[in-house]
């Protein structure tokens, strides 16, 4: 088990600034999908509140070094909502410039319609096939626990990061998520936290056309810690995340009730917003309703950049603290430190061939 490193404090939310950042995510999503003439605007608009609170206030990551070993991981299992991830990466200073946001879904861009593994830009894994990202997150959480068991020593928690995932109704319909969730509960994978975007809408229409099971009951039966909340109440999201971070003996599912295409006067809560542009007129109306400038497209206030890119300084500090811990660890446990470095280089130990069994030839 990975041991908790102190009790996390609830962040000091700033309602006005937070709302500005959330609406920037929504506006970038609408503009990118509209310019590409294809995409999935509804999910990023609906999950913007919850994802923003997670990314800005709870995750420990370094935009200037996305490969920091002890970073928190975010898997966007609902990969069709890729603009949610791209907007977060861009706003917080990762190698995701505005030019790439404007090239959303174009050949050769860094912003394909569904995320593709690009760790140097902060994309942890390829997602899109529903349920796959959920299972990837379970695998990452298992890897973290195995690393912690192998390398952590008293006073030196070299591995203590969290794995987060954002999953959709479609993800939880797929069989692979059932199997992976069962394993995660069986293994007691604390520090795995899944935010479930429960918006009651799929590409076919209302989810109750085909999906009426008790999701909370199902996950409790798997052995998960389950919380139910309003996904647009940022204070409630923060409270739920803080609680989930303290649950060390099992994974957590945060059921976030949201509105697909939040803010759209005519397409909020409608299946049309799932996988098609809102349309120029609806984008205009939505921006007006959100109090956002209609022009120019891809507009981001400087206050949003200043706040989001505070993660650059914070991330550098978190990594520096970890590296100081690592130096002490390497001095105290040089053999383990050398093994750790070899593992991260992807190298096999000397003499590994000797572990391969040999068998005599079969008699004629």
Explain what the structure shows.
- The protein has a single domain, classed as Thiamin diphosphate (ThDP)-binding fold, Pyr/PP domains (Rossmann fold).
- It is built from 13 helices and seven strands.
- The mean pLDDT is 96.
- The strands form two sheets. Strands 1-2-3-7-6 form a five-stranded parallel beta sheet, sandwiched between helices. A two-stranded antiparallel sheet has the order 4-5.
- Helix 9 links the parallel strand 6 and strand 7.
- The radius of gyration is 21 Å and the shape is globular.
- The protein is 45% helix and 9% strand.
- The protein is α/β, with parallel strands linked by helices and 364 residues long.
Protein topology:
Layout: H1 15-36, H2 42-58, E1 73-76, H3 82-91, H4 98-102, H5 132-151, E2 163-168, H6 169-173, H7 175-187, E3 192-198, E4 201-202, E5 205-206, H8 215-222, E6 225-230, H9 234-245, E7 252-257, H10 280-290, H11 302-308, H12 310-332, H13 334-345
Parallel strand pairs: 1-2, 2-3, 3-7, 6-7
Antiparallel strand pairs: 4-5
Helix pairs in contact: 1-2, 1-3, 1-10, 1-11, 2-3, 2-9, 5-7, 12-13
